[in-house]
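Running this now, will post back.
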Amino acid sequence: MRLVQTILAAAACIALLVPAASAEQFLLCDFLGYDYTAPMPRNLSNPNVYVALGDVDNIHPGAVVTDPLNYQYTFVLNSGTCTAADTVAGIYGRYYYNAGDGTFFIYEDPILGGTNRNYGTNPPNATAPSTFSDGTLILGADFVNLVIIVNLNNWTASLNGTLDFYCGEGWGNLPCFDGWTFAGETIESGIPEGYIWAVDGVVYVEEVLVETTNWSDIKKLFR
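Update: finished.
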């Protein structure tokens, strides 16, 4: 994947414990993009909204039939309302989005004849998020909860949440609709003007109880 290995090698992010994959774990997709807050930049607190957008790769063929040679696949994450915020040991800031108004959408758009996605600068702008969301909606989910944990010393972060899918062309083919895990890490490096971080992560669902592992082990499942 583009940039993924670079981002993972350079990241000094908060440790993120996620369930170890097994034969019973269904990995939906891998995503990579950039994020911002609006209307105030680089401010995760209410009334600002956190938005991430970018490319989606490795979509599970058991969920959605894809054609990456002819179509581009993009995502738009909208956090919804910030419901609470606190700090831990003066080092980590935690931001909670549990109002139920957050969303995660995946779109399919033709490479030829479609609109090529474009981050631009200082989002929201004329191309972001619009060029990431103007294709066919293939999967749409609500955030049951989303937590962003920021290392206040180096301004890196981790994201973790729970998704319930409810719409899209591929919705009916999912093995289940509720209880999907959204997990990602960020790093502040090579970011387009006006964005905060690069965001790198996965969406998966657990079907059995398994031991915990680290973020690198989860990412290896896509290589």
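Residues 73 and 155 are 29 Å apart (CA to CA). More later if anyone needs it.
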